[in-house]
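Pipeline run #58 for the internal structure catalog. This entry was flagged by the ingest filter as a single-chain record with no existing model, so it goes straight to prediction. Upstream metadata was stripped on purpose; only the residue string is passed forward. Reviewer on rotation: M.T. Logging verbosity set to normal.
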Amino acid sequence: MPQTFDDLLARARSLTSRGHRVILGIAGSPGSGKTTLAEHLVRELNGDGAPWAAHVPMDGFHLADAELDRLGLRDRKGAPDTFDAAGYAALLRRLREEADEDVVYAPGFERVLEQPVAGMIPVPPTARLVVTEGNYLLLGTGAWARVRPQLDEVWFCEPDEDERLRRLIARHEEFGKSHAEAVAWVLRTDQRNAELVAGTRGRADLVVPVEAMPRVDADA
């Protein structure tokens, strides 16, 4: 069991010895530190030469607010059915199958706008490790069941619960909600999603201990 971030870094490096592009998934509930862990891993892995690791978040597959309004799902934004899960699985498959071809462009997510942005993240052929992170990588229902087979390994982030809630509230406040609005959203929408994600923990290859996590503030 990894005890430090350096242990996680070594494990990520070892995955690329398989001789093909590897996709590492990082799962966890909202506010668990997934994004910070992914960003730290990719930055450290790319710090000693040409970039060979890429970060492709699941959040780029949020449905746009206009579509959520049409579907009547705006008040549940962040729930499994407010993402294009089939599109996400298709991108992961493409990243595997086109590893030695042209640049693959992935969508990103603009936090200020709270909207997905197409073609935001380039993944070059030199990227031998793709780190993808999101809440529902281990969910086994609907189109989400197509995601796990595309991932070589999945890690699950499980921080202290009080700290996770604090980060979430701070993040919602940072992007425009009042404190009361942030608390209400976290305890209603985010917590329901967190409980669903927690039920997928047993499908992970590794549960990341708190002491191995890099420092986070208000993370996804």
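catalog note: The chain has a mean pLDDT of 89.
catalog note: The two ends are 24 Å apart (CA to CA).
status: ready for reviewer M.T.
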